[in-house]
Amino acid sequence: xxxxxxxxxxxxxxxxxxxxxxxxxxxxxxxxxxxxxxxxxxxxxxxxxxxxxxxxxxxxxxxxxxxxxxxxxxxxxxxxxxxxxxxxxxxxxxxxxxxxxxxxxxxxxxxxxxxxxxxxxxxxxxxxxxxxxxxxxxxxxxxx
Length: 144
Prior knowledge:
Elements: H1 16-32, H2 37-40, E1 47-48, E2 62-67, E3 73-75, E4 78-80, H3 82-98, E5 107-112, H4 118-130, E6 135-138, E7 141-142
Parallel strand pairs: 1-7, 2-5, 5-6
Antiparallel strand pairs: 2-3, 3-4
């Protein structure tokens, strides 16, 4: 008597739904996680009992300038000199002019480290004013 071999067909699962779900999760996480330059550059803000959220909404045209504990100016993730900051601000003013806006329509957000010299913050403000930017927000942590 001859024994017939059992059916050796391999059952395969359809992986298409699994792959689709994986890509959807990746896309969801890319949208959800938004690292800003404030998160990338670790600047320890000073604490103040006067710190509070702005009373009115900040304009869409905001420029964030940070100062680290050594007093270096950070624009984005790059350390720049004051002369380079002037050039950057001129470029920002040009971009605003292409949108029919003036430098006065933009808000400069200054995030200075608590160990940074006050004179450096004043120097940055003076540089911004020299390029016709006149709206400023100084960031601080609310004192507990």
